[in-house]
Structures are given as structure tokens and as C-alpha cells.
Amino acid sequence: MQRRCVDGAILSISAGAVHVAASGSHHDLGVLGILLAVAGVGQLALGAFVLDRPEPRRMRAVAVFNCIAVLAWAVSRTIGLPLQGAAGAIQSPGVQDVTAAVLGAGAVVVALGGRRRSQRERALTARSPVLAVFGLVLVGIAAPHHHDTVEQAVPILEAGHLSDRLPPDEGIALLGLSARAPMPGSTPDNHSHDGHHGTGFSEPRPARALNRAELSAFEQQWSRAVLAAEALATADDAIAAGYTQASTEALGVGSHWVKWSFVDMPFDPAKPSMLLFKETRHDQPPELVGFSYYVASPDEPAGFAGPNDIWHRHHGMCFVDGWLRSENVALRGDCPDTWIDGRDLWMLHAWTASGWSNSRGLFADMNPSLCGRRPLTPDILSCDPAGL
Length: 388
What we know:
The protein folds into 2 domains: 2-150, no CATH class; 156-387, no CATH class. By secondary structure, it is an alpha+beta fold. It has helices at 2-25, 31-52, 56-76, 95-112, 119-124, 128-142, 168-179, 212-231, 235-240; strands spanning 90-91, 149-150, 244-245, 255-258, 274-278, 287-296, 317-320, 323-326, 338-340, 345-350. It contains 9 helices and 10 strands. The radius of gyration is 29 Å and the shape is elongated.
């Protein structure tokens, strides 16, 4: 009996050591990090309590505490803990938390085990548990501390509030995009209009020559896009067609006006989900500079004929009253209104508007004409906010 108490205490202390190590890497999850620290300290303290006097009454306290810890872990990996924000999201299992759960469950099993072992069984298992526990602790503490959270679909009316700025059907379409479950898998490399390389833009890639069939198809598609741009040249035209401004102006790109109901539709050159406008002087209306196609697809969609499209994705977008508030928001609970995961939404800029041809290419991610040029400055650097 005394030996069983000692074994259970060692398992509890080991689980506590892993939990304490994990709490530091979960500080960004607020309450969840605190709960991990509390669990770790409790397991350490109760294990030491039993080692001080190995007796069944004390061991029962170890069993109860570790049982609660293991059950909480199971809930956090299946339905999520009843906590706000990221701490309440379903957590995917990782080496570290599985190790702590196994050690905690072991403490419970040992504490509740009542069968008296034979002398031969005790001799065979006298050393192996200690070695196994030591190995698990090393694995648990040294294992990578990061694991992804698993977001789920939510009812459409819980995905955010229906914005009064948007036409009703467009507001519902935005909530519909937010409500659905994100694609499984890792977060893609995120494109941002004010992010990587100081500007958020990459160097243009050379366009590949099209064969005869590709060229014929592309010319027809581009002609349709140009005609559509002529019909959407002003902000009044955009509003009449159901588009609503969703972002302020970004250097090199312009402001985005969105028609959310087009996002779930197949690619159509004449029906872009977004319009790009140049905000001119206060006494003049905005001017259309191009399109931004935004297409829902698990893989990079087929757009214009040929291989020259430059699709990109924006991850973790947070909208408040239909306005883009921030990007790279990891979890739905961290956005106060409408959150879009973005892993299955692909964007393509196309400089279709008359007078706004782009020296970097038809599908370049930025247009130098929208940057505010400086003498002797490369195009990509002229959009650096720090240098303007």
C-alpha cells in the first residue's frame, strides 16, 4: 500500500511539472494559462503531501484532483471549456498536454488500484515505472508548446451583428461567411497590405506568354472585365450595384468596396466581389482603379485564362459594422463582431480601370500610381508609410 502511494505521488508530481512548464507557453490564452498553472501547482503540492506521509487518505485527494484535471483536459479537446475568447475554443491535442493527461490518469489508476501484487510482480515492476515516468516528464517538458485551436461553425445569427451600413442581403452574406467552419489545416502565409517586407508587397513575377487558345479566352475575359469597370466607375455606381466600402485606403491598393453575396459565386470576370477605389481630394468623389476578385475555394481557384493570376489570402479578418478592423486575428472569440477565417478565400487584384494601367502587371498586388511617388525610389519602396 505504501509503495502504491509513493508511485501515485510521483505520477502526480510528474504531471504537475509538465503542467507548470505548459502554463508559461499559454500565457496568451489568459484564464487557460492560469488554470494550467493552478493544476500544476496542485498536482505538485498533493504529490509532496503524500510523499511526506504515504497513506490511503492522502492518496485519495491525489486521485480526486488528478481526475478533475484529466476530465478538464478531455473537455478542452472535445467541446471546449466554458471560457471566453481563445481560452474557450477547442484545443487540438499536443505532445505536452497528452503527456500530462497520461501522467495524471496514471496517478488516478495507481491511487484507486487495490489488488495486492505478488512478490514476482513487484520485483518485475520495481524499477520500470520510475524509468517510464522520468521519460514521459522529459518528453512533456521538452515538447513544443504550441498547438492549434479548432474553430467550429456557429449559427449565422451568432456570427456577428447585422450591419445597418450594408444592404440586408449583403449583411446576411457577410455573416454567412463568418458562420461556417474554417478549413482544417495550418494557417497560410498571410498577405497583408501593410505587413511583410516593410510594405506588404512582393516583387512582381514575369508574365508567361499565352498560347493561342489561352490568349483568345483571356482577351474575351479581359474585355468583359473592362466593360464592367466602365459601368462601376464611380462610388454612386458601386452603391447602386450593391457594393459597400469595407476598408480605408491602403497605399498601393486603394480602398475596398465589397459585395459579399458574390464571394460564394464562381469566378466571373464581370462580377468582382470587390472594387478598388482611389480616394481623391475631399471635394472629389472616389475613382475606380481596379477590381479585386474574392473567391471561396479550398484550393487556388481558376481565374483568367493562363498562368499569370496572382492569388493571395488574408487570414483572420475582423469586421466591425462591416468595416475591416484588423487582420491576423487567430480566433473568432478575439473579434468583437464578425470574424472571417480566410483560409478558403482567395483574392486577385486586376487593374481593369481606364487610366490606371500598372507597370508591374495586370494582376500585381500593388499599383505604383497609388503610392505617392518619390524621386529615385523603387516602386515597392514608394509605398512604405515610413518614407512618405
